[in-house]
């Protein structure tokens, strides 16, 4: 009887443990990124290149912008909830909100963006796709 009770207790304890091999946190997206955004409203394409830093679900970074008449650089901040990303780019004080999905390995993402009416961004909307630069394999060998 004591053996059965011990087995029941062990099964209960093991079933209440989380699987150490499952990852419930967001993917790691830290690194150098290139993002291409295509405007649905104006038809132009903007390329953003820069670095994203990540602390848990919080992200931040800075980007250089090409093809954007509103700014040549932007600060980024946002959050990751699972594979869902929300990131705000501040272009000379005007916010552009990017939402989308990140791949499980954190190497690419895509979605849509929107900007408030008025100012230089003038209510722009569109789609975006981004990819993270692969880490230098020589750095991993050190």
Features:
142 residues, Lipocalin, eight-stranded antiparallel beta barrel, disordered N terminus, disordered C terminus
Helices and strands in order, then pairings?
Blueprint lengths: L1 H14 L15 E9 L5 E11 L2 E9 L6 E9 L2 E8 L2 E9 L5 E8 L9 E8 L4 H5 L1
Antiparallel strand pairs: 1-2, 1-8, 2-3, 3-4, 4-5, 5-6, 6-7, 7-8
pLDDT < 50 stretches: 3-22, 137-142
User: Portion of residues in helices?
Assistant: 10-25%
Structural class: mainly beta
Q: What's the mean pLDDT score?
A: 85
CATH class: Mainly Beta
Could you name the CATH topology?
Lipocalin
The number of E-state strands comes to 8
End-to-end gap = 56 Å
Run of helices and strands: HEEEEEEEEH
The CATH homologous superfamily corresponds to Quinohemoprotein amine dehydrogenase alpha subunit, domain 2
Instruction: Describe the global form.
Output: globular
Largest sheet: 8 strands, antiparallel, barrel
Q: Provide a count of the helices.
A: 2
What amount of the residues lies in strands?
A: over 45%
Précis, in short:
By secondary structure, the chain is mostly beta strands.
Task: Write up this protein.
- There is one protein chain.
- The protein has 142 residues and is mostly beta strands.
- The protein has one domain: Lipocalin.
- The chain is built from two helices and eight strands.
- It has helices at residues 2-15, 137-141, and strands at residues 31-39, 45-55, 58-66, 73-81, 84-91, 94-102, 108-115, 125-132.
- An eight-stranded antiparallel β-barrel has the order 1-2-3-4-5-6-7-8.
- It starts with a helix and ends with a helix.
């Amino acid at each position: 009887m004591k053996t059965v009770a011990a087995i029941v207790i062990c099964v209960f304890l093991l079933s209440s443990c989380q699987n150490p091999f499952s990852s419930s946190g967001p993917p790691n997206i830290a690194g150098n990124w290139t993002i291409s955004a295509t405007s649905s409203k104006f038809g132009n394409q903007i390329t953003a290149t820069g670095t994203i830093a990540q602390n848990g679900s919080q992200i931040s970074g800075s980007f250089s912008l090409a093809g954007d008449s509103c700014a040549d650089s932007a600060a980024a901040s946002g959050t990751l909830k699972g594979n869902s990303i929300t990131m705000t780019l501040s272009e000379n004080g005007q916010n552009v909100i990017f939402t989308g999905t990140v791949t499980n390995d954190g190497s690419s993402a895509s979605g849509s963006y929107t900007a408030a009416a008025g100012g230089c961004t003038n209510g722009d909307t569109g789609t975006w796709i981004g990819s993270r630069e692969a880490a230098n394999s020589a750095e991993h060998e050190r």
